[in-house]
């Protein structure tokens, strides 16, 4: 049997502790599957004295992750500290420069510095594995990077934030407001005290930027993502969606178009009959659309210590199964130096269906005015719902679902309706996404 | 750049032709992703003169696949002939014995001879890749074999036959009979002239037997699969399922139980709200339940030339990315010689919920007699539906959904009801499966 694979783990939070526990509990089976032992020989975390409920055995303790990363005593550096800057960045860089393989769950780091780090890994002939960085335990990186080689991807989209999906699921199931569901999510530990990162789409954007690079062979560009959160989704939207055969999800979508690549994160209407519409609660799902395969969908737990540790262990095992001298595929599917510059499609050129909800004064001529604004902008309508029951005596709700049109046309039409002076409150516009 | 990877393809049917076409069209991109060229240098098929609409370039033609498999001019033997016996068996064996890597889409071959072939591959230090053998383009082999290393799997289940799923989907959507939908499927080329293999569960069983070995580390045992097809599913079942919140799918299920491993293929009720219930038409889906990850679901095209070719190309690319002297993980997750003997759980011990549909004489006391038979066998009922509208003047339908009970108890109870003489036709029993 080959020499044991010696790993050094930096970061012993929920995921780090799960990884150590899993290596202990599943040691025999992992050795059988990998043909060698995987041994955590060194660890590093902020507080040496904290009780994490794990057995660190004889693992050497480092106070400085960079020192651990450079240590000649390890073969693989496992970065589970998080954060786009130091010490994650400097330690991953140090590990790669020193010829150590790296496994990381750090989406922020990769979305910012992924291409630079990939170039170092490829120059040094070591692996940089990051399955846990996107959609937790779902093997979407492996699928895009290995299984779909040779497929030309046209679109990747998914539910990549469990907090946002949990809130939307409860809003729909229980008729509660966004604020009530957010509080529930915070109480249950699904949402942070400051939930901005999750509910405004930043977390999804980080993950999406990594998938975009893998899918389209371009450099990562997390700053070029159109982003809209779910905090202004109301019960009126959810009920109207249901009535029209849709469900609202916070999707990240990356799509090739004639003018470039669209990367967008926003609340989205998906058909209730689609598979992705059945992805409830904290579950994540990613769909990949290609020329050869059609649509592939992966769904499962997108977060949590054990699910994330499962992906980290898978990444470590891939390294354990390989042998010195071997070379695996490039970090982002194509060699880092051959990744294309990111060409951003203009959001105004986005083509798709739209859901538009107007709350209007209940008076004659309003409906005709709205219809005219749509027609003037070449927007053809798939359905129109005017609620018989007025929301109060003086106002009514008008809901439109458009056929494929453009973002620019919808903006112009909605601005026109707003200027006409018939609205009693801000109009709601939600994009519709095709989904199988 | 490394030397080109030379492949020999045996079998130029739909999948083989798609592989050749894809290698031609995606050559540049594949070279970039794999770091070397993939060149089909030799082919073999039954009829040399048939026009397959593909450019075979300078590929050397072999009449004998075994000769191709042994040829020193190839690095990888791609077996796309199908069939569990020769020439597939002898040629794959010859390729492995000669130290060539093998890629195959042949589920029948693997379900019968997989462990023997894996042992040869492992002894010779070559790869035997077979992603396309199960669920076409869905990367379920890669997921079980690589991504979920270290997870303890408790259950694998899925929709693995597109023909059967297409028929069930149309029966539900259009209210047509099994026979009508089968004819439609045949007309559209989704079903063979002799559809037995697909609709009676044999095809699903082959695929399931491979997943079982990967999931549970046991030897493949395709003969130990309980099998029931979909030909006796009627509109009455489908309507009753819908009414009770279920949908009927032909599932393959492998599950660890106290008494051994259950492998079963049968029509199954899954909750309408589950993700797998939304898998329609020829689409396949596989769910994997583990201790660390929870439930992971993969869905996508399970058949078709391009989707299957996508998986074959992925397998070839994995070989292309590796280098001589490297070693990858074992063929079925664990080394072939360490795979455990298959221990079959008794089907009578199967525990789960059941849907039971009785058609009974419309007379006093029938319902009480049925209820007594259930109670006598300790079967507790979740719901009872007795249709007001008699199916004709003299008979009625009684539908029961049980809480968890055993196969043995259900059989005994149903036999009791049958003996009581109240039934006007054969009772229908359909197992219910939990699904997220």
TrEMBL record, chains A, B:
UniProt-annotated catalytic positions: 207
Natural source organism: Chelativorans petroleitrophicus
EC category: oxidoreductase
Binding annotation for NADPH: 107
Family recorded in the similarity comment: Belongs to the homoserine dehydrogenase family.
Binding residue positions for NADP(+): 10-17
Full protein name: Homoserine dehydrogenase
Entry's EC annotation: 1.1.1.3
Binding locations of L-homoserine: 192
Chain ranges of the ACT domain: 355-428
GO biological process: methionine biosynthetic process; threonine biosynthetic process
A Pfam family reported for this protein in Swiss-Prot or TrEMBL: Homoserine_dh
Keyword terms: Amino-acid biosynthesis, Methionine biosynthesis, NADP, Oxidoreductase, Threonine biosynthesis
Annotated metabolic or biological route of this protein: Amino-acid biosynthesis; L-methionine biosynthesis via de novo pathway; L-homoserine from L-aspartate: step 3/3; Amino-acid biosynthesis; L-threonine biosynthesis; L-threonine from L-aspartate: step 3/5
A GO molecular-function annotation: homoserine dehydrogenase activity
């Amino acid at each position: 049997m080959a020499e044991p694979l010696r790993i050094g783990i930096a970061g012993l939070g929920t995921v780090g502790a799960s990884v150590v526990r899993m290596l202990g509990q599943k040691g025999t089976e992992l050795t059988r599957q990998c043909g060698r032992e995987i041994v955590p020989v060194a660890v590093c975390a902020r507080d040496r004295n904290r009780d994490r409920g794990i057995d660190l055995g004889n693992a050497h303790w480092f106070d400085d992750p960079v020192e651990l990363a450079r240590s000649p005593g390890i073969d693989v550096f496992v970065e589970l500290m998080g954060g786009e800057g130091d010490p994650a960045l400097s330690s991953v860089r140090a590990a790669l420069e020193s010829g150590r393989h790296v496994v990381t769950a750090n989406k922020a780091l990769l979305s910012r510095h992924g291409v630079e780090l990939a170039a170092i890994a490829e120059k040094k002939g070591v692996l940089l594995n990051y399955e846990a960085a996107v959609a937790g335990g779902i093997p979407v990186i492996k699928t895009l990077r290995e299984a779909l080689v040779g497929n030309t991807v046209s679109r990747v989209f998914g539910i990549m934030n469990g907090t946002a999906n949990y809130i939307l699921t409860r809003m729909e199931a229980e008729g509660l407001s966004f604020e009530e569901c957010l509080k529930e999510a915070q109480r249950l530990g699904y949402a942070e005290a400051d939930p901005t990162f999750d509910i405004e789409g930043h977390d999804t954007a980080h993950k999406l930027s990594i998938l975009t690079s893998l899918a389209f062979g371009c450099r990562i560009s997390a700053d070029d993502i159109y982003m809209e959160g779910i905090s202004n989704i109301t019960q009126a939207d959810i009920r109207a969606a249901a009535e029209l055969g849709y469900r609202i999800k916070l999707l990240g979508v990356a799509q090739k178009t004639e003018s470039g690549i669209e990367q967008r994160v926003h609340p989205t209407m998906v058909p209730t009959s689609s598979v992705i519409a059945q992805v409830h609660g904290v579950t994540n799902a990613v769909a990949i659309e290609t020329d050869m395969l059609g649509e592939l969908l992966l769904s499962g737990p997108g977060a949590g210590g054990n699910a994330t540790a499962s992906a980290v262990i898978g990444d470590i095992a891939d390294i354990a199964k390989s042998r010195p001298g071997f070379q695996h595929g490039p970090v982002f599917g194509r060699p880092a130096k051959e990744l294309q510059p990111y060409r951003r499609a203009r959001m105004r050129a986005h083509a798709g269906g739209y859901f538009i909800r107007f709350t209007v004064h209940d008076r004659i001529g309003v409906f005709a005015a709205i219809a005219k604004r749509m027609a003037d902008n070449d927007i053809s309508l798939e359905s129109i719902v005017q609620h018989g029951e007025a929301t109060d005596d003086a106002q009514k709700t008008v809901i439109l679902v458009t056929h494929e049109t453009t973002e620019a046309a919808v903006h112009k039409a909605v601005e026109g309706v707003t200027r006409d002076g018939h609205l009693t409150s801000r109009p709601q516009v939600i994009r519709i996404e095709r989904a199988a």
